[in-house]
Amino acid sequence: RVQQWAVSFGKDIAALSTRYSGAKLLQKKYKDVESVVKMEEVDGEELVNKFAEEMEGMLGRKMKSRLAEAAEDADLYHEFNETLEFDYYNSLLVNMVDEDGNPLSLGGEFPLEENEHFNKLPVNTQLSNIQVPTNVYNRPDILNGAYMSEALNDVFIDNFQKDPTLTWQYFGSSTGFFRLYPIQWIPDENGVVTFDCRNRNYIQAATSPKDVVIVVDVSGSMKGLRLTIAKHTINTILDTLGENDFVNIIAYSDYIRYVEPCFKGTLVQADLDNREHFKLLVEGLHVKGEGKVKKAMKESFKILNEVLGQGSLCNQAIMLITDGAMEDFQDVFEEFNWPERRQVRVFTYLIGREMTFADNVKWIACNNKYYTHISTLADVQENVMEYLHVLSRPMVINHDHDIIWTEAYMDSVLFNTQAQSLLLMTSVAMPVFSKKQETLSHGILLGVVGTDVALRELMRLAPRYKVN
């Protein structure tokens, strides 16, 4: 009886599924087209390569937008003016009014319309605007750069008219200001804009890939504010790195230790996960003992020598963060960095107001071209950013306009609600150089131009039915 019931139940299930699945209808339709349907074998590797070529072509077309050329020409024909003055609006105050309904000073009235290409945000596609982070002041170079880069506005508009799939277009200046088309800027909950384009993924376009070992002094003299400044300096350096870079961090006092023991003796990719992991470990650093930097420098050089052919295959640098060095370690440089060996750049950051035992640190600078003194937290950002100019010089002098794609990210910085920020993006960017005759030999980096691309645009080139 159980067997009979099972057979009957099976027949009922089959009949039910046939009835509601439309299987017979599908079979009939297939019969009608069977003569023209054929099975075709697909080469997976060839398919993926084709998708990659199409994506590269699409992003390449977006970069052939004359932005870099327009920015370089604008700088070429602009004469620097120490007392430059011009009228401008504050984009944070656009269309805002006071208690009496009058437009706020510097606000201005501009029509804004929701636009599908910009995540339904209210924009004006005839305007671009400048954002200056709170730690950058209206210096003459900022004002001249803002005035000079206004020439990009017509190019932004023309690019968007030719390719409506474009989203944000930008010029990120090496001095810190950011020209963006076409959105207004939204302050954070404290009413300020903390965004700094030099900390964003697309600043990778400003330098070639790099291997970086960060060496930080955690001896007893680094207690208090000095350690706080040192930690902030490390985090700022980490923020300038990206997926094409490799990094490790060594702390030293009486002995040396890797902040992450699992990464001992090697470099790891500076992707978002590793950068955030390092930041958590750096936060837990504490000071103790006497600072003996010689062993730490030897270890750093050994890492960079051993990873040749495995890391970024490009620039190599050691970032030394200390309040002074009692040891003379010229022999370390003679052994590892002079003269036949591959040159490793050493950037020294002297921490604290008092410059005790600074001579040995200055000696490093005299023989390795870079030294800076950081006495307060406010000094960190600008001083760290200077190393990007140094590492960019070979690329600038050779005028290598290399195009880079950044890692995918959720860009919530530009938007004022969490719902609007859920748009996965990548940035495609390239460097902008000074073409003025008097600066050609100096390798002056003006900044980076580029555009953000929604990943949904890329996915349209690789429909799921082809890759499943």
From TrEMBL:
<keyword id="KW-0851">Voltage-gated channel</keyword>
<protein>
    <submittedName>
        <fullName>Calcium voltage-gated channel auxiliary subunit alpha2delta 4</fullName>
    </submittedName>
</protein>
<dbReference type="InterPro" id="IPR036465">
    <property type="entry name" value="vWFA_dom_sf"/>
</dbReference>
<comment type="similarity">
    <text>Belongs to the calcium channel subunit alpha-2/delta family.</text>
</comment>
<dbReference type="Pfam" id="PF08399">
    <property type="entry name" value="VWA_N"/>
</dbReference>
<keyword id="KW-0107">Calcium channel</keyword>
<keyword id="KW-0813">Transport</keyword>
<dbReference type="InterPro" id="IPR051173">
    <property type="entry name" value="Ca_channel_alpha-2/delta"/>
</dbReference>
<keyword id="KW-0109">Calcium transport</keyword>
<keyword id="KW-0406">Ion transport</keyword>
<dbReference type="GO" id="GO:0005245">
    <property type="term" value="F:voltage-gated calcium channel activity"/>
</dbReference>
<dbReference type="InterPro" id="IPR002035">
    <property type="entry name" value="VWF_A"/>
</dbReference>
<keyword id="KW-0812">Transmembrane</keyword>
<dbReference type="GO" id="GO:0005891">
    <property type="term" value="C:voltage-gated calcium channel complex"/>
</dbReference>
<keyword id="KW-0472">Membrane</keyword>
<dbReference type="InterPro" id="IPR013608">
    <property type="entry name" value="VWA_N"/>
</dbReference>
<keyword id="KW-0325">Glycoprotein</keyword>
<feature type="domain" description="VWFA">
    <location>
        <begin position="211"/>
        <end position="391"/>
    </location>
</feature>
<keyword id="KW-0106">Calcium</keyword>
<keyword id="KW-0407">Ion channel</keyword>
<keyword id="KW-0732">Signal</keyword>
<keyword id="KW-1133">Transmembrane helix</keyword>
<dbReference type="Pfam" id="PF13768">
    <property type="entry name" value="VWA_3"/>
</dbReference>
